[in-house]
């Protein structure tokens, strides 16, 4: 199967396998504030990632690129969407543009349609410093994402089998590129031990990419004759992962992706400590099923509702919202107890 067919297979299978809603977000409850003292019109949604100013704490996370016209069209539409809301957008893995420069245009279209907006370049942890620099330059990117996707690779018949040296390469990239580096998972979550190692390697921003949304084990298993079904339920739920990352000492920035579908989902991960929430599969689903205009309406609603939720809790800013009192119950509480995290 060609790379371009595989990319479109990912899109198709991401849409058909859907999102599992096992992110643990139902275990998070806001403590009601009867005297919030807020006004909706004064709520500020601005946030920060790596010193970059965000007009709202939601971004479109890495999905596609490389592999021809279909992925270029999806990237153009996602870039147009990001441009409407002035929100950041991450491109999909640029490893294919490194291997074949004729594919570069499928990524460049994102800068073309989001000319002054924030764009995150994206490479795998196998990338060299030179390759990472090339990917940033190609898009005049504002930040660089390095994705970690061990389980996806293992389930892919043609995937990597050797994961040595990733942390060392990440460390080299962090110290050599002149944009903030975000290390991200793709839906299996990060433990506090992983986050701690990344911090020690100089990484300032992690996107915990938790379990409970798009499931790359299922997506890749759908392409196998002999599915590794044991990986379908493998991963750290988004809620647990944000809390684990936030429990690591030292002030760093956390992004939370993995099953974010609504303002309420985004609100919960931010209240747990994330600076911003990433959406991938849900935005793709809206685009493919409801069209561009409806997707704008869906996102408008996300931002309007986020302000309502913040107003209800008494938080006027994202910084205040990150300190919200919350009740954690169910499996999330059990997991955190087992792990000795308060
Ligand atoms: C992805 N994701 C992804 N991530 C990455 O770093 N590089 C990539 O190339 C891709 N490709 C990709 C394709 C498609 C079709 C989807 C749906 C997703 C992973 C994505 O950024 C995100 O981490 C996960 O999808 C979890 O978030 P959601 O989908 O549950 O919101």
From TrEMBL:
Residues noted as binding substrate in the record, renumbered to the chain: 6-7, 152
Cellular compartment(s): Cytoplasm
Keyword Glycosyltransferase: no
TM region(s), chain numbering: none
Residues annotated as binding FMN: 62-64, 93, 122, 184, 214, 280-281
GO molecular function: FMN binding; isopentenyl-diphosphate delta-isomerase activity; magnesium ion binding; NADPH binding; oxidoreductase activity
Domain of life where this protein originates: Bacteria
Catalytic function, reaction form: isopentenyl diphosphate = dimethylallyl diphosphate
UniProt keyword annotation of DNA repair present: no
Co-factor(s): NADPH; Mg(2+); FMN
Assigned EC number: 5.3.3.2
UniProt: Mg(2+) binding residues: 153
GO biological process, one term: isoprenoid biosynthetic process
Listed Basic and acidic residues bias regions: 1-12
PANTHER family the record matches: ISOPENTENYL-DIPHOSPHATE DELTA-ISOMERASE
Biological function: Involved in the biosynthesis of isoprenoids. Catalyzes the 1,3-allylic rearrangement of the homoallylic substrate isopentenyl (IPP) to its allylic isomer, dimethylallyl diphosphate (DMAPP).
Protein's recorded name: Isopentenyl-diphosphate delta-isomerase
Organism: Salisediminibacterium halotolerans
């Amino acid at each position: 199967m060609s790379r371009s067919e595989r990319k479109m297979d990912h899109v198709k299978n991401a849409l058909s396998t859907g999102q599992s809603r096992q992110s643990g977000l139902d275990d998070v409850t806001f403590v009601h504030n009867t005297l919030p003292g807020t006004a909706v019109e004064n709520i500020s949604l601005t946030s920060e990632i790596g010193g970059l100013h965000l007009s709202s704490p939601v971004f479109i996370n890495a999905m596609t690129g490389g592999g021809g016209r279909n992925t270029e069209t999806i990237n153009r539409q996602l870039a147009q969407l990001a441009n409407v809301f002035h929100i950041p957008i991450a491109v999909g893995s640029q490893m294919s543009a490194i291997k074949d420069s004729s594919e570069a245009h499928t990524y460049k279209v994102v800068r073309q349609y989001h000319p002054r907006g924030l764009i995150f370049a994206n490479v795998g942890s196998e990338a060299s410093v030179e390759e990472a620099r090339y990917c940033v330059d190609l898009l005049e990117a504002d930040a660089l994402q390095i994705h970690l996707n061990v389980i996806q690779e293992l389930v892919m018949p043609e995937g990597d089998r050797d994961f040595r040296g990733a942390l060392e390469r990440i460390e080299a990239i962090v110290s050599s590129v002149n944009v903030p580096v975000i290390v991200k998972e793709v839906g299996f979550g990060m433990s506090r031990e992983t986050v701690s190692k990344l911090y020690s390697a100089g990484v300032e921003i992690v996107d915990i990419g938790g379990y409970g949304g798009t499931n790359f084990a299922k997506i890749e298993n759908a392409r196998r004759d002999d599915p590794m079904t044991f990986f379908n339920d493998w991963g750290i739920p988004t809620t647990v992962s944000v809390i684990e990352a936030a429990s690591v000492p030292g002030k760093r920035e956390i992004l939370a992706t993995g099953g974010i579908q609504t303002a309420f989902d985004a609100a919960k991960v931010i209240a747990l400590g994330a600076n911003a929430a990433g959406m991938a599969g849900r935005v793709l689903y809206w685009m493919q099923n409801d069209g561009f205009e409806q997707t704008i309406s869906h996102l408008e609603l996300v931002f309007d509702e986020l302000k309502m939720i913040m107003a209800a809790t008494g938080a006027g800013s994202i910084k205040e919202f990150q300190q919200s009192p919350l009740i954690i119950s169910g499996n999330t509480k059990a997991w955190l107890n087992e792990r000795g995290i308060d």
